[in-house]
Amino acid sequence: YLAYLNGEFAPLDQLKISVLDRGFLFGDGVYEMIPVYSRVVFRLDEHLSRLEQNLAAIGIPNPHSREAWRELVLSLVAQQTFDDQSIYLQVSRGPAFPRNHAFPAEVSPTVFIFADQLEAPATVLTEQGVSAVTATDVRWLRCNIKAISLLANVLAKQQAADAGVAETILLRDGLLIEGAASNIFIVKTGIIYAPAPSELMLTGITYDLLIELAGQYGLPLQLGDVTEAMLRQADEVWLTSSSKEILAIVLLDGQPVGNGQVGPIYKKMLGFYQEFKRTVMRR
Ligand code: PLP
Fold it and tell me: Looking at the structure, do residues 156 and 257 belong to the same domain, yes or no?
């Protein structure tokens, strides 16, 4: 597992950062998780564009041009021994002393990238679906920033782990927001619904792709408020993320979603998604 830290490539377990790094002390940084299929980086420009927006949003000077980021990621991908990879890329504000919440006057961001092996979701999951629970969204009001400070998401995901299910769906003021580490779509009488992008949720790269695919293949899709009632009465519920792709949620808080089986629109969308992946890999 070759990794990258501030200009240096080395085995993952040999890289070290300062204990004064603001990523470590404050969770002061942003990240991306980028899937790689057969050594083809999936939606790299979309991920880099979100990274650039996130850096700007929290005032970390972007240490690299788009082209330099691209080359860095491609170089790391090329140096791994395995073909399907999940690239974790993190930029923190860097080390500073004395410890002080406000931005230090002079600081140099810490760039850390590593590759892990990527396992495609098991066939049993895409064919039979997964279970989820709901919880109140107790996060802050800037969830559109892909921040490394993930404590609320960690606790939400642990609720799912404790319940023996795949995901926790977060609700705020009676509205569906997103999963602890995914976006959520629902289907009711043939129409796909999802929350519109806002500061309360992360706009997923997979979420954007599903919206694109729905448009391309003429599946009706509406973005806007999705109430808890709509979620509970949905025919289908899906979660999406770069690592999970699209999974149907067939059991929610112990109740079957629709008829409790993976739905027809899910199967269509998954087919379109897999075809899109194949097209990208052929290029
Ligand atoms: N929302 C949250 C909170 C996430 O952590 C993630 C990804 O892990 C997503 C949504 C999905 O984003 P993407 O499709 O870019 O992986």
Answer: yes
Contact 214, 221 (CB under 8 A): yes
Q: What pLDDT sits at residue 142?
A: 98
Total structural domains within the chain: 2
**CATH code: domain of residue 108:** 3.30.470.10
What is the mean predicted confidence (pLDDT) over 109-136? 98
Q: What is the pTM of this model?
A: 0.98
CB atoms within 10 A of CB 122: 9
Domain that holds residue 25: 2-117
Residue 192 buriedness (CB in 10 A; 0-12 / 13-18 / 19+): buried
Task: Indicate whether 189 and 90 sit together in one domain.
Answer: no
Same domain, 104 and 21: yes
Residue nearest to atom 9 of ligand 1 (CA): 182
146 a catalytic residue: yes
Ligand 1 contacts (CB < 6 A) are 33, 153, 178, 181-183, 202, 204-207, 240-242
Is residue 81 located within the same domain as residue 132? no
pLDDT at 198: 98
| d(C-alpha 214, C-alpha 238), whole Å | 14
Ligand 1 atom nearest residue 201's Cα:
1
Do 145 and 41 belong to one domain? no
pLDDT, one tens digit per residue, over 226-279 is 999 999 999 999 999 999 999 999 999 999 999 999 999 999 999 999 999 999
Q: 155: domain CATH number? A: 3.20.10.10
